[in-house]
Amino acid sequence: MLKKTLAGIAAGALLLGMAACGGSDDDGGGGGSDDGLIVGFAQVGAESAWRVANSESVKASAEADERIGELKFVDAQQEQEKQIEAIRNFITQKVDVIVLAPVVETGWTDVLTEAENAGIPVILADRGIEEADEDLYVTRIGSDFIEEGRKAGTWTTEEFADNDTTRILQLEGTVGSAPANDRKTGFFEVLDSEGFSYELVDSQSGDFTAEGGKAVMETFISTHGLEDIDLLYAHNDEMGLGAIQAIEEAGYTPGVDIEIIIVDGSKAGFEAGAEGKVNYIVECNPVFGDQLMDLVVQVANGDEVEKFTAVEESAYGEGEFEAELPNRKF
Ligand code: GZL
C-alpha cells in the first residue's frame, strides 16, 4: 500500500512539476504537461478478436480523453521480451504512466522495479502477474479469470449431470498466462468441489490462436478419436473455432458429437453458437478503455485506487446466442 501511494505521489509531483514548468521535459520525453499525460501501453499482441477489440477500445478512449496527451502503443506479438523492451523505452521517454497487459504471469520483477525506481507508476490491463510482484504495480483492470472458469465448470456439471463419467478435452491458452492458469483452476475447482465424475482425456495449449486450436484438436482427434469424448473446453473463441474446423474436417458434428465451451464472446463465437456448433459461451469483456483512462489519471494524480477493478461480464447458453449476437462488439 505504501509503495502504491508513494509511486502515485511521485507521479503526481512529476505532473505538477511539469505543469509548473509550463511544458514537457526538455529532452523531448513525456512528463505530464498542459498537453496532457503521456501513457505507454505494452499490449500482448493481436492474436484474437478479443485482443484487437481491447486495443481499439484503449486507443479510442485515449484519443477522446483530453486528459491524455499521447498514448505510446506497442504490440508485442505475444513475446514477453518485446513487452520488457517497450517498458524500458517508456522509462527512457519518461512517460507519466505505464500500462502493461502481461503476456505471462512471471518474469516482470526486474523491469517493473526499474519503472518504480524511475518513479513511473504501472497499471496492469487485462492479465495479472504473480503475487510476489504485486507491489510493483498500482492496480489491475480486467476480468476475474477464475470466475470465468467457475462459470464453465458449473455449466458442465449441470449439462452432464446424468453422465457416469464425462470425458473432457481442454484447449489451454498461452502457457503461463493468467487467463490460461485461472480458467483451468476455476473450471476444475467446481468439478472437484461438486464431486463431479470426469476424466480429463487430454489438455494442451493452443496459445489463444485459431491455428493453434485447430492443430491441437487435430492431434486430439488422431490420438483419441471423438467417439468417447463428451466436451471440449476451449479457453478462448479462436481456439474453439479452430477446433471446430478440425472436428468438421474429421467428419464429426461440433456441438452434437462433442459439446463445446468457449470463452470471450466474439461475434464469430456467437455465430457458431447460433449455428449449434458451440454449447456455452463465457463472456470476457475487452471494452474497458474509458475505465482504464480514468485509472491512468487517478494514478498519475496519486489518488488512492482499488488494487483490482473487475469488468462486467456474463455467460450464455443454447437458445440465447441469436438474441445476443447483435449486441456483440467484437
Ligand atoms: C483475456 C485475454 C485473453 C482472451 C484471448 O482477458 O487475456 O487473451 O481470452 C486473448 O482471446 O488472447
Task: Describe, in plain words, how this protein is organized in 3D.
By secondary structure, the chain is of the alpha/beta class. It folds into two domains: 5-142 and 286-312, 3-Layer(aba) Sandwich (Rossmann fold); 145-284, 3-Layer(aba) Sandwich (Rossmann fold), CATH 3.40.50.2300. The chain is built from eleven helices and twelve strands. It has helices spanning 2-21, 49-64, 80-92, 109-117, 145-159, 178-193, 210-224, 237-249, 267-274, 289-300, 321-324; strands spanning 37-43, 68-75, 97-100, 122-125, 139-142, 166-172, 198-205, 231-234, 259-264, 280-283, 308-310, 315-317. The strands form two sheets. A six-stranded parallel β-sheet has the order 2-1-3-4-5-11, with helices on both faces. Strands 7-6-8-9-10-12 form a six-stranded mixed β-sheet, with helices on both faces. The longest helix is centred in the N-terminal third of the chain and has 20 residues, at 2-21. The radius of gyration is 21 Å and the shape is elongated. The relative contact order is 0.14. Residues 47-48, 50-51, 126-127, 142-143, 179, 208, 236, 263-264, 284 line the site of beta-D-galactofuranose.
